[in-house]
Amino acid sequence: PIRFIYTDTYEDPYSHMNEPLPFEQLEEAALGDTQELQARAWNTMIHHQNELGDLINQILMKINITDENEMMLSVCISHFYENGILTKETIEKYRSIIEE
Question: Which of 1, 24, 85, 98 is geometrically suited to a Cys-Cys bond with 80, CB 3.0 to 4.6 A?
Fold first, then answer.
């Protein structure tokens, strides 16, 4: 019976977080209340940042920073800033996060 308890195969319990969302669902997911969909949306945008630059800036201009999303947004904003994705307007809105 011990061979049915243990396995040599590793299964990532968070692999579903890396499943990309369709581009047309990104804005609704990123601005929604479901943290899992938010994480998937931001992961999708990070992986396709060059294709989604306009949408990323549009979402960032609409989103409000809360205690729940502050850390995730800080990481994403810094990443997009370092990769030249953010517009001047978006940089100004998030200047305090970028300068940290």
Answer: 85
Within 10 angstroms of residue 10's Cβ, the number of other Cβ atoms is: 6
User: What's residue 1's pLDDT?
Assistant: 62
Place of tokens 């307007």: 89
Residue written as token pair 């994480």: 39
- Give dist(CA 38, CA 17) in Å, integer: 9
**What pLDDT score was predicted for residue 88?**
97
Q: What pTM value is reported for the model?
A: 0.82
Contact 86, 93 (CB under 8 A): no
What stretches in the chain show pLDDT beneath 70?
1-4, 7
Among 42, 44, 56, 59, which Cα is nearest to 86's? 56
